[in-house]
Design goal:
Elements: H1 2-17, H2 42-45, E1 63-67, E2 70-73, H3 74-88, H4 94-116, H5 123-147, H6 154-163, E3 169-178, H7 181-192, H8 197-204, E4 216-221, H9 227-234, E5 245-247, E6 250-261, H10 264-294
Antiparallel strand pairs: 1-2, 3-4, 3-6, 5-6
Helix pairs in contact: 1-4, 5-10, 6-10
């Protein structure tokens, strides 16, 4: 029962955001007894002590269930479950699928009765439906005209790598962080005169994370450090020590201990992701601007202040 309730909660949350069991809002014309708001509760959907009896019959291989005039086909069910997996990254087990089908049936029965009871004409429901439907179709449109058009090939990634080889280097460095400029300059002069970088880092650095390791930062690539630090570090040769470099954290004395080239194979996935994000942003902006030119937008300035 606990598993059932957990599943019920999952699918209830899922269907709360989007009416998946119906394809459109339509008021049914068939005469049937009206169910009041009081009757339509969670308990009436799935009462704990009640076993709902269904009419089990052998149907054609493409039909899962018939609920009134609504036919739940294998195609519809596949779309529903794939949508759930896409939205929640969740796959049902075979046992959970049986319970889920029962939930779909109950959901559809309630939806049929709700239409007959005039719920499809309620303004707040129509607004929510419009929003949920727009959310689904806009996502599908975005996927086709932005995400799919932004895919990056291996040859594109290779071309970028060849043109920007200087960016595919990783360095191993140490640093000494000092908040006071004069103190940083004095320590730099002491290092220049031959004092041990490691000893000064251990005794004076204000970076508590790396202080005990003589300021060791390990290997890092471009894009991992703040710009001022990165620009200075990657301009140094192996064994070279920088003058104090100012960043938002204070003043850094940087020592580069090693430089290594990163191969294309090790960089390919990162390059493809970077180009993909860039193309996606450009494709989205171009698409939105084109649509906006055909559909003027006006926003009340009182709502964006």
């Amino acid at each position: 029962m606990i598993k059932k309730l957990l599943l019920f909660f999952l699918v209830l949350c899922f269907f709360y955001s989007c009416e998946t069991t119906g394809t459109y809002i339509k008021k049914e014309t068939d005469k049937q007894e009206i169910i009041s708001d009081k009757d339509i509760t969670q308990e009436s959907i799935l009462p704990e002590e009640t076993t709902i009896k269904y009419d089990y019959k052998k149907l054609d291989s493409e039909t899962i269930a018939i609920i009134g005039k609504y036919v739940l086909t294998k195609e519809k069910y596949k779309i529903i479950t794939e949508y759930m997996k896409e939205k929640f990254n969740y796959t049902l087990t075979r046992e959970q699928e049986k319970e889920f089908i029962e939930y779909l049936i109950n959901k559809k029965l309630l939806a049929i009765q709700a239409r007959k009871s005039g719920y499809s004409e309620k303004k707040d429901i129509q607004i929510k439906y419009e929003w949920d439907f727009d959310d689904i179709i806009s996502h599908a449109f975005y996927n086709d005209f932005v995400e799919k058009k932004s895919k990056v090939t291996d040859s594109e990634a290779k071309e970028y790598y060849e043109k920007n080889k200087e960016d595919f280097i990783e360095i191993k460095a140490q640093h000494i962080l000092i908040k006071n400029k004069n103190t940083a300059n004095n320590l730099y002069q002491r290092i220049k005169k031959g004092e041990s970088f490691d000893e000064i880092a251990r005794n004076y650095s204000e970076d508590e994370t790396t202080k005990s390791m003589a300021g060791d930062l390990g290997y890092f690539t471009k894009g991992m450090m703040v710009k001022e630090f990165e620009d200075a570090a990657f301009s140094l040769s192996t064994g070279e020590i920088s003058e104090p470099v100012k960043t938002i954290y204070g003043y850094h004395i940087i020592k580069v201990n090693d430089r290594k080239k990163i191969s294309f194979d090790d960089s390919k996935d990162k390059i493809k992701k970077m180009i993909y994000e860039k193309k996606k942003k450009e494709n989205f902006e171009n698409l939105i601007n084109k649509i906006k030119s055909e559909n003027p937008v006006m926003i009340n300035e009182n709502y964006i202040k």
